[in-house]
Amino acid sequence: MNIDLSEFKINKTPIAEFIDKNNNHLFVKEESKNPSGSIKDRVFLYGLKKLLSDGKIEPGYTLEIASSGNAAISLATIAPFFDLKVKVYMPSSTSSERRTIMNVMQIEAHYIEGGMTKTIEEAKKEAEKPNNFYFDQFFDPIFLGAHEDTAKEISEELSNIDYIVSGVGTGITINALSSKLKKYYPNLKIIAYEPDEAHFLSEHQFGPHSLEGVGPNFYPPNVQGINIEKIVSITKNEAYDMAIELFKHGHDYGITTAANIVAATKSGLANKNILVINYDSIQKYLNVLNKYVTEKN
Fold this sequence. Notes:
Layout: E1 15-19, E2 25-30, H1 40-53, E3 62-66, H2 70-78, E4 85-91, H3 96-104, E5 108-112, H4 115-126, E6 132-134, H5 148-157, E7 163-166, H6 172-181, E8 189-195, E9 228-234, H7 236-248, H8 255-265, E10 273-278, H9 286-296
Parallel strand pairs: 2-10, 3-4, 3-6, 4-5, 7-8, 7-10, 8-9
Antiparallel strand pairs: 1-2
Helix pairs in contact: 1-2, 5-6, 7-8
């Protein structure tokens, strides 16, 4: 190798601004600019360092992770910097783009029928072997210590935020980031969105839906105890159409990010400063969106 690739670094990510029809200022923190392409890099760099320093894992271990995509890609990117291996378990509904990334990265990946609950079970079973560890992004509270750096970056650029909008997958972003941000914005309120096909937050209604990366088929414990001001229901068409429209205008945001923006515009708020989290890019959803556009036309 003719270049030095020995250090994993997260640089400051940009913030884009939009104004919606109700004169809300939407500030999009572009976490897709992180090295592996998603916000998970923040959480897992913090988590790996903490697990190593606490002696829960050691160099040479194999980490098992259950993930719908971004987490697996992030962990597979970061872990080798700490001499750790990764084995991935993903739901069978995982998009072809994510499967391709796993293949190109030469990561052992298993695709499991039965949704995220069954996927977690399979990962945990494998982690019972010696020198293996289940990397539990859904239930291990260690990850809630993340996002100090993210919150500090945001505070250095934005003097005031009234609301943060986030979807919920593991619940780490909505919990860890909002709690860190409240040090800088004490009156910050939370808006969450859920798929119209599965009202898992408002009604504990679990089931298949079209917004990959949010809405697992269980209630994430990281969300318990959080004061969510508003829960907005988002349809597949709203999220997909927004992602496509943004892409046509030069904004490389994934479907779940587009859903965040839709949620902000549907919140009923006016004249507010709203922080929107950009989880990943549209590149991981192109086949899904291509099929959607083809069928629509």
